[in-house]
Amino acid sequence: MSAQTVKIVVTGPFNSGKTEFIRSVSEIDVVSTERKITAEAEKVKSTTTVALDFGRITVDDDLMLYLFGTPGQKRFDFMWEILSEGMLGFIVMVDSNRPETFREARSILETFRAYAPTPYVVAANKQDMPDAWDLEDMRVALRLEPKIKLLPCTATNRDTVKAVLLELLYSILEEMEPQHD
Amino acid sequence: MALQGNLRDFTIIQLLNLVHLARKTGLLVIETPEETAQLGFLDGRLTFARLGQEDDGLCTVLYRRHKLTTSQYRQMQSRQTTMGDMELGLILINSDILTMEEIINAVQEMYVEVVRRLFTLIEGFFKFDAEAGLPEYRIPVSIELENLIIEGSRQIQEKEFLQEEIPSLDMALKFSDRQGMDIQKVNLSVEEWKVVSYVNPQNTIKQIAKATKMRDMEIRRIVYSLIQAGLVELIRPTGALPGTVKPMPVQDHDEQRSLVNRLIDRIRSI
């Protein structure tokens, strides 16, 4: 019998650090289909994810976790719903240094919430940079309710990536607990 | 840490909301190609506002609001160069020309007007400096931001509302299955008919917008009204690929918990 596979989706605006995030914990080389960027407005970096990033963590013989990164550019958002099907939860990556992307991050978050009512956390990436916004300011800017976890992160640092994944899994566990009024 | 960016991406309403909720103190400077605006805050309340190099001394403010006669204005104006607003205000009160309340109201109205003018800005670099002090010569006021935020929000409320109601234009539309609905008998506008003519599970809203040459907001507004009227429903476009990953086992909660705990243990061990 084939192993049970579950997936977590890593989403967020263009250049928010999704590929690096998956790369930091994946046991396989991230299957990333990066291509040269053509749109002038998106030339912050030379390549971006045009299809999806795919990483894998084997738990044991019976269980595997897939990490899917969504395409970074808006024009590929038709992939989002397809990717969100059956996901355990999702992570919204936000570049703490680029407030101009906060609105888009909020929009992506709401779109994914509409696709599936699964737990999610928000990762404030690039918190190690000098111009990074404070978490409290980001929370207000992103209009996150207090119960939503907003976690500091550096996508290239495995420990912070692990912490974000763990917090999402804790949220998923909490969601499974019986609700008491 | 830096609180800076561009209004193109982060609106003045969002900034005011941030200052209000975080109860910030400091000076917000907004630089546009045309002018520079300064807004001062104390514990999340507006205390000062200035736009460009306009003469916003107390005498001018009061005169423009018809609180001073022309002769009073000329008389006080000559003192403006050597006195701050506080001193001028005291002279006006002690001379029984105006009350303290009238002066403060006039100053508050002027600051609110400045903020209202900023609502229309869509481009400009902003920087919030928590260390910057406010001009000492100004009359200190304290204006709640809530009403200003509400007023400004109304202007963009419709846009945001529609974006929330229809989060993705990659969804398609289908006619609702309501019994007895006859689309031919429904009274629609020309624009609504255009959209209705393209309703098909294979057409995304984006494609309909392109075919009907409508902008995002126009198509969202029409689609929303059609949904509210019960004519159409949002669906995923047909032909989209199904997911390839098995969803969580939904029945057995113990199995679900066990699965997540195994994932947690594995992540911890990486």
Structural commentary:
The complex is a heterodimer of chains A (181) and B (270). By secondary structure, chain A is α/β, with parallel strands linked by helices. Chain A has a single domain, classed as P-loop containing nucleotide triphosphate hydrolases (Rossmann fold, 3-Layer(aba) Sandwich). Helices cover 30% and strands 28% of the residues of chain A. Chain A has a 7-stranded mixed sheet, sandwiched between helices. In chain A, helix 3 links the parallel strand 5 and strand 6. The longest helix of chain A has 19 residues. Chain A is globular and about 45 Å long. Chain A starts with a strand and ends in a 5-residue tail after the last helix. About 7% of the residues of chain A have low confidence. Chain B has 270 residues and is α+β, with helices and mostly antiparallel strands. Chain B has 10 helices and 7 strands. In chain B, helix 1 crosses helix 6 and helix 2 runs antiparallel to helix 3. The radius of gyration of chain B is 28 Å and the shape is elongated. About 3% of the residues of chain B have low confidence. At the A-B interface, strand 1, strand 3, strand 4, helix 2 and helix 3 of A face strand 1, helix 1 and helix 10 of B.
